[in-house]
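Bit of a strange request maybe. I'm writing a small parser for structure token strings and I need a real example to test against, not something I typed by hand. Could someone generate the tokens for this chain?
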Amino acid sequence: MSLRRKIFYLAGAVVVAAALGITATVISVEAVCTADVPTPSVTSAFGITDPGYARSQGDSFLTFPEWYIVHAYSDLAGVTARGSESDFRYLSSIAGFWRSLCRATRQAAGSGPATQDQKLTNYIIGFSFTAEMALQGAYEKSIGAITAETTDGVKTAEDAFNLALLKDYAAFLYQTPWYRYPFTAKLEQFWRETPFVPSVRAVERRGSLSLQYAGRAAYAAVIGYAAGYDPAILTIQSVVTGVAATELGAIPGVRVIREVTDAKGGKGVLVQTERYAKFDAFARELGRHAGAALAEVAGNHRILVTIVVPPGDRRLAAFDGLPIFSIPIQSRPGARRIGVDVPVRSLVQDIARFETAGYTFEHAYDY
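Reply from user aminoacidic:
Good idea to test on real output. This should exercise your parser:
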């Protein structure tokens, strides 16, 4: 058999194995990660039927796997700051993604409907993340680890640039889709501004990081092109109680839409804010207004939040939510990220309760 044919057969075998692995994983998650109760329907208590207002409650839980990747890159930056990329546990990070996806899927099934688009997104990013972490891990645990040993713990200029990029990238992801990160510009900056001092590590880093940035730039261009057909909605609407419309309108980034009333005569104010980190800031700001609460968010009454619990075997303080997963944080040995299913009505108060107990409120996953 010719070498060309052998390569062809090997490539075919890899494709078939990958297809079987992907199929088996999807079937496993869909079959095993289910709830024992029927999926309930969710409707606005205020009868709000404005186009674009209502969103699927289950998507709050199913957006966590996307954010798991954000947290993973933040973790990678933290581990790299203490040592090098080769110290990161890549396989543990991959396993953590799929465990979190399973638990989020199970909670979504029992909480409220979830969209098929969100499920598909999770599988696409999950397999992409798995491939990226596996390839990077294989390299960093072998060649990367060998060259790191030659530095006696002193970072090269290339190491310093990559650490700064990892931190910048992690911060960027908290508010902006990853494919908008300027990888091409960073690659150009890397070669333009990073001084080259010849060493084994410097040569290896310069080559490997160039390939890494270029590869991500190319993949980001493909995903960005595809995302242009269905761009993410970057705003969300909520009903706030206990605060006057004029007072809400004075909060930066808040647009008051109108006052609303529920079936029992309860009053609220329908507002629009930005999503992601800006929504977290809005929820925190409401905590500074006595009596303020969120009655519903996008028509929903439950929401996933994550908190960071510091090192030590501590019991979670009393709150209205239900813990659904616990994930160790590599960059903070002993610390854990806890996912909590929280009633929307108590979100503002629970943020204060978490932080009074010594935990860090991290994020509310806004559908």
